[in-house]
Amino acid sequence: MTEGEWRDARVLWEYHQLNHELRVCSAGIGLGSHDLGVAAEAARLFHAGLFPVLVFSGASTPTTYGRFPCGEAVHYRQHAVSLGVPEDAILVEPTAVNTGQNIERSRALLQQAGIMVSSVLLISKPYMERRAYATCRKVWPDADPVCASERVPLEDYLQRIGDSRMVIDMMVGDVQRIIEYPPRGYAVPQPVPDDVLAAYHRLIRAGFTTRLLPNTS
């Protein structure tokens, strides 16, 4: 990657993170992905007393099957239990394949368990906070969302994941979804500053396009 591409990637990285002040919520939801750090952060926040019950949501996708062949939520649960989260504090939703389904199906699972939810702590990859927030506001308007993720520099994160291009492709794709999804009814609108738009378009021109939605420019 060029120095300019690194600069643009950092702009998107910082944009995607909301830096919410964390507070106690009715439940936590660990959003499935390729990143096992989500489960570790969820365990840390559980032990900090920020929620009494934790839902892990996620099936296997082409991106994650190699890492989590039993499904994202199942592997997340195993990792959280290994970090001391009690098994009876975890619910598993193993079918969701996108963020809207993560939230909708977690909501249904909590309702089935008789757990009253007025606020939810959404735990995600660092570069998924904003889209998770926008999605939750749309599909679960009665729950007040707070977003959290592992606090880590971009370079350290990329080194741990081991696939810089995949992560940057995903960051570009998430900016596109933040722009495109509100008109489709999938999320509430989010501001996209000019510097973020400029970085987004430069990275597309540089070829970071594998996570773009089909049939859009």
**CATH hierarchy class name of the largest domain:** Alpha Beta
Classification by helices and strands: alpha/beta
Total number of beta strands? 5
SSE arrangement, N to C:
HEHEHEHEHEHHH
Describe this structure in words.
The protein is of the alpha/beta class. It has 2 domains: 3-14 and 154-205, no CATH class; 18-149, Rossmann fold (3-Layer(aba) Sandwich), CATH 3.40.50.620. Helices cover 47% and strands 12% of the residues. It is built from 8 helices and 5 strands, in the order αβαβαβαβαβααα. The chain has helices at residues 3-16, 37-47, 72-82, 99-112, 129-139, 154-161, 164-184, 194-205; strands spanning 27-31, 54-57, 90-93, 119-124, 144-149. The protein has a 5-stranded parallel beta sheet, sandwiched between helices. α1 crosses α8, α2 packs across α3 and α4 (99-112) crosses α5. The radius of gyration is 17 Å and the shape is globular.
Salient structural properties:
single chain, 217 residues, alpha/beta, Rossmann fold, 12% strand
How are the SSEs ordered, and which strands pair?
Layout: H1 3-16, E1 27-31, H2 37-47, E2 54-57, H3 72-82, E3 90-93, H4 99-112, E4 119-124, H5 129-139, E5 144-149, H6 154-161, H7 164-184, H8 194-205
Parallel strand pairs: 1-2, 1-4, 2-3, 4-5
